[in-house]
Amino acid sequence: MAAAMPIKITRVGARNIAVAAGVAVLAACATPVPPPPPPPPPVQKIIPPRPTPPGGAAYIMEIPPLGLDGLRMTVNRGLSNDERTWHFRSAWNVAALNCVNAEHKPVLDAYSAFISNHSRTLSAVNSRIDAAYRKNYSSSRDAIRARESKMTSVYNFFTLPAARNDFCNAALDIANRALMAPKFDANEFAAANFSVFEVPFENFYNAYEQYQRDSAAWDAEYGAEYGASQPGYVAVHGTPTQPTDAGGSNSDGGS
User: Fold this and answer.
1) What's the rounded mean pLDDT across residues 101-123?
2) What pTM did the predictor assign?
3) N or C end of the chain, less CB within 10 A?
């Protein structure tokens, strides 16, 4: 029979036991590691509203294009000296009738003085324009109709509602110039100041073309998903059941 293996007994000191117990107690009392924070909520995509036309204009308008000379092809292009004077008088007439705020009172006062003080000059201008139309048409009736049609276009140009505020301020500028000048030649004054009447409309056309670019970019990015909530998008593109011909309107009113 083999001899039994001796049993080895290791003595653990009381100090070692105490240290081990202390470590266990400290471990039990330690603050647990907090769980990781929850992920942040998804970023909400902010959809900007669709751009709107300047001056409360219509969502769809035909803007006069630029000619080769860099000027817009409006009813005021290619004028004779007499026509320029008459268009100037017409623009001032529109301002006198429509710029009725108290601060614009000089517009009417100066216009009345302009008509009164330069009646003979203006009458001669008008007669020469009539003669030019009669020369270009086979009958007086056709000449009258052609001139009336042209003047309707002139008045429509200067009555554009979206440009009225700036137009009235331009008219006030011209009125003050006229009131401060004791005497002046009507044709020379018209030639020197007609562009002042045109600037508000040029500024509006530029702003409207910027609106067209901005709204087209909005439509391309957001239109398919959000367009139905935007009146301008619906006005231009219609709805799936009722599409709109974007070129079917040239209204100059607001909406």
Assistant:
1) 98
2) 0.78
3) N
